[in-house]
Amino acid sequence: MTVVGPFGLSVRDQALEADVQAGLAAVEEGLLEATKSDVPFITEAAQHLVRAGGKRFRPLLVMLAAQFGDPYAPGVVPSAVVVELTHLATLYHDDVMDEAEKRRGVDSANVRWGNSLAVLTGDFLFARASQILADLGPEAVRIQAEAFERLVTGQILETAGPRDGRDPVEHYLDVLAGKTGSLVAVSGRYGAMMSGADERTIDVLTHYGERLGMAFQLADDVLDIASDSHESGKTPGTDLREGIATLPVLHLRAQAAATGSPADLELCEMLDGDLADDALHAEVLRRLRAHPALEQARRDTVRYAEEARSTLAPLPECFAKAALENLCDAVVHRAG
């Protein structure tokens, strides 16, 4: 069993390992090429997060999905570059919106160069992704456009908040389906489609990606509270500090409303306070780490990962399918 890629997926077959490693190496080259500009400063800013590393979760899924067709087909690697460029572009924008200070263990682009240049760099990455897409055909462009619409809609819904009477947890899960699930679904779809897999397989891997993407983001929600900066590569409690109610916080608020627990109500009041205060922020993190709401969020992560695994049932038994199943385990492991 060999670990493949920064995400740490374990695979059991040398041929599959070689294919995935070669594919991911080609993606890295493609990312560096796609982020070059005739203007040196633009190259530096565009490659800031590329060179900082990352899990390459979406390209990894593209490579594994391509195993159900021809993994060497010419569109496989470019499509993986597209999804990762799109993801990176959203990170530049997210960090501006969240006023984040760290990303992947380095200063965020907005801290280093300011908000305006960070936003424009994200736009530059979107433009480069679009150029690559144009060579992959109109169907690939349509798929990306639909996913991007879902992604932006999810971000708008998160910013606007749930409408009156809407369950905040349901609203939040809809937000995640758009913001994260959509692009991970495209990763599975592109890998299968570009490799020439049949329509049934494409559909299976698209749905698998959607559920896995949800589990992946919920694991990030848990990590934002439970991890230190060494593990996550960004400042713990960033979402808390910016007032973003992730799943553990939503579960806490629901429990406080249902039980009237004085301790829970007090913690909710603290969450509504000025979490720019480092001492208050640290105390809130400490209490949340010990609260049952965090474990409930972990269980939700497991549930989505298991749903992703179950969608794979129609696929033939092979090393690639086993690797996709292991990917579900790897996502859950991130959440502890």
Structure description:
There is one protein chain. By secondary structure, this protein is mainly alpha-helical. The chain contains 17 helices and four strands. A two-stranded antiparallel sheet has the order 1-2. It is globular and about 60 Å long. The chain starts with a strand and ends with a helix. The model has no long low-confidence stretch (mean pLDDT 91).
Structure summary:
By secondary structure, the chain is mainly alpha-helical.
Structural class: mainly alpha
Summarize the main sheet: 2 strands, antiparallel
Order of helices and strands: EEHHHHHEEHHHHHHHHHHHH
Question: How many strand elements?
Answer: 4
What tags apply to this protein structure?
two-stranded antiparallel sheet; mainly alpha; 17 helices; 336 residues
Please describe the topology of this protein.
Blueprint: E1 2-4, E2 9-11, H1 14-34, H2 40-46, H3 48-51, H4 57-65, H5 76-98, E3 102-103, E4 106-107, H6 109-113, H7 115-134, H8 138-160, H9 168-194, H10 199-226, H11 229-232, H12 238-241, H13 247-259, H14 262-271, H15 278-289, H16 292-311, H17 319-334
Antiparallel strand pairs: 1-2, 3-4
Helix pairs in contact: 1-4, 1-5, 4-5, 4-9, 5-7, 5-9, 8-9, 9-10, 10-16, 10-17, 13-14, 13-16, 16-17
